[in-house]
Amino acid sequence: MTRNLVGIPTGTAHRLRLLLIPLVCIGLAWVGTANANSEDPPPQEGSETPNPPDSGATSKGGLESVVSDDQDDNKDGDGGRLHWGPLYPSITVVSSGASVGPELQLWLPNLGASPLDFHVGGIYSIRHYQHYTAQFGLLPERRHGPPSFATSSTSIYPLAPIERLAGAENHFVLYGSYRYRDYPEEDFYGVGFDTPREDHTNFGLRDHLFEAVTGYHFSPRFAVTVRAGLLETSLGLGKDSALAQLSTRFDSLTAPGFGDPPEHVILTTGAIADLRDQLNNPHKGALFMVGLSRFEDRHGGPFEFTRAAGDARFYVPLFTPKHVIAARALVSSDWPDAGSRVPFYLQSMLGGSRLLRGYPSFRFRDDALTAFSVEYRFEPISKLELALFYDAGQVAESFSALDLADLKTAWGGGIRIKSKHRMLLRFDVARSRETTRYLVKTSPAF
């Protein structure tokens, strides 16, 4: 049987992606039928006149409320997000180096008055980065639109999916999930903390992730999760003609996993305690996340390891919420089995728009990582935030090799535009001994 680049039977991956199209159509048809057959109940005597039904496109409730400071939660559960019925469009940056692109999500909670939810989303950037995801079951539900989904290949697994549990209001979750990514211009400088800039190369990354997820939310602030998944990865030529191909300077020894990417069975458990005053615009409180993952090579190859990761964030107002000190400490460590190594594309990485911002994305990667950030944030008006920040971090071949006396540092400032519920635009200028970077993002640093 012939196999494609991701190591699964030819045509299977294509059929999986095509499966999302009829799912979306079925969901839209269901919504149309439900709307067509539903009637608003007559107002009861003595009751207030009911709100008119949602006409689909939220004009005033969409564009204007995106930057609204209304302190009352939106009764329709969208938190002021622009949407047309169950469709939520936006512009986003899918991953480092991808540039901007349109994002569209379909969110159908409580299908047919059942507790089951359906969510599908897709992003296609102007640099041809693609990210598609679909979930079905008892999903983590919030009052402010569809579930968030992590897209960046610099995110540390499993912390990124654990963070998505924050703010969910249903106690029990149980769902299946599928993700497909095609990132054609991923950067690679080598493994280690002293890699030269001259070794900057690129490669193409494609993967499929199938997961079964369950968890329990003691409240919107405290949750635990258990996940089981299958990750299938393929690596190919990078599409950035300005950079050399990874294969011209590295091999399977200096870039473990490059020659024959494994198929991983991933088992994960994690927990989150979210003590912040607001989910995406905190002014006080703290956030704690821990995760433990086991990566088993499906075919018994030399790529089996265990990962532990933790993330702590603190937000302290200085006499008034207009002045805030925000701090973050992050640590991740992998323990490969005897004779095994961690594939380079799964290693923890420093650099980019969130960690060690004065260095390019993917600049440093290895089996262990520690990173620190501190920001002074000032809001002269409610929609505008000014910030000064200082980052530090290190990667090493093992947790015991991390040395806090040998950190690389970065510093800078930024201007952010935001609403009550989320960051709309973040512009940071970050400086390091290596370069100056100008970062434009639609998500917070932390």
Characterise the protein shown here.
Helices cover 9% and strands 45% of the residues. It has one domain (12-32, 78-441): Porin, CATH 2.40.160. It starts with 11 loop residues before the first helix and ends in a 5-residue tail after the last strand. The chain has a 17-stranded mixed sheet that branches. It is mainly beta. It contains 3 helices and 19 strands.
What is shown here, in short?
The protein has 446 residues and is mainly beta. The protein is built from three helices and 19 strands.
List keywords for this structure.
446 residues; Porin
> So what's the CATH class?
Mainly Beta
Helix content: under 10%
Could you give me the name of the CATH homologous superfamily? membrane protein fhac: a member of the omp85/tpsb transporter family
User: What string gives the helices and strands in order?
Assistant: HHEEEEHEEEEEEEEEEEEEEE
Unreliable stretches, pLDDT < 50, 5 or more residues?
Answer: 1-78
The rounded distance between the terminal residues' Cα atoms is 46 Å
Relative strand content: over 45%
CATH architecture: Beta Barrel
Cα-based radius of gyration, to the nearest Å? 22 Å
Number of strands: 19
Q: Determine the CATH topology.
A: Porin
Mean pLDDT: 84
**What structural class do the secondary elements suggest?**
mainly beta
Estimate the global geometry from the Cα principal axes: globular
Number of helices: 3
Specify the biggest β-sheet.
17 strands, mixed
Domain module count: 1
